Amino acid sequence: MKRKFMFGLGLAAVVATAPFVTTTPVFASLQEAGSAIAQRIMRPEVKLEMGVEKQITVVDENGVEKLEWQALEGEAAVQPGDVLRYVVETSNGGDIAAKNLVVEQPIPAEMTYVLDSQKGNSEATAVYSIDNGETFVAEPMVEVTLEDGTKEMQPAPAEAYTHVKWSFDSELASEMAVSVSHEVTVK
């Protein structure tokens, strides 16, 4: 009786391990599951922080005026004609690089984009929208009717800009940070 029981356990052990030893799909599924778990653990953690600064004029000890940026916090007062700079700090605190990073910012209706004011690192390419973020191009154009009635395409005026978008050409490596900014004038 004892022998039959031992033989039965031995046969059950061989049958239970046979699928793992002889069939590749089960082994491959286990590898894929392990890879999926690792990908869930190791991922980019992109953090965006936006700040706003107001351009002010200061007089140094020699009586010379110069422009500086003053951080705005809380409910700061701004006046028509004030120049503001929006700064977006982007960092990756994750384990792996962030790919295909895009930072998009609308331009508030109460403000006008300052042409050519975008600044960023060399990996960021700025594009703009003049149709509320539907399309983006490097140089927005509008159709203008000339005095003689002919129409031609001309660069869009600053007032037409509705969004700024930066696309990063390279990956944002783990523990890396980048900054982009643009300026607007209060209407």
User: Percent range for helical residues?
Assistant: 10-25%
- Overall mean pLDDT stands at 83
List the strand order in the largest sheet: 2-1-3-10-5
Radius of gyration: 30 Å
Helix-strand category: alpha+beta
CATH architecture name of the largest domain: Sandwich
**CATH topology of the largest domain, which one?**
Immunoglobulin-like
* Number of helical elements: 2
Count of the separate structural domains: 2
How would a textbook summarize the main sheet?
Answer: 5 strands, antiparallel
**Beta-strand fraction estimate:** 35-45%
- Overall spatial form: flat
SSE order: HHEEEEEEEEEE
Give unreliable regions as ranges. 1-23
Distance N terminus to C terminus? Answer: 96 Å
Kindly state the number of beta strands: 10
CATH class of the largest domain: Mainly Beta
Q: Would you kindly provide a written description of the structure presented here, covering whatever features stand out?
A:
This protein has 187 residues and is α+β, with helices and mostly antiparallel strands. The chain has two domains: 40 residues; 141 residues, Immunoglobulin-like (Sandwich), CATH 2.60.40. The protein is 21% helix and 39% strand. The protein is built from two helices and ten strands; from the N terminus they run ααββββββββββ. The strands form three sheets. A five-stranded antiparallel β-sheet has the order 2-1-3-10-5, with no helix packed on it. It has a three-stranded antiparallel β-sheet with strand order 4-9-6, with no helix packed on it. Strand 7 and strand 8 form a beta hairpin. The protein starts with a helix and ends with a strand.
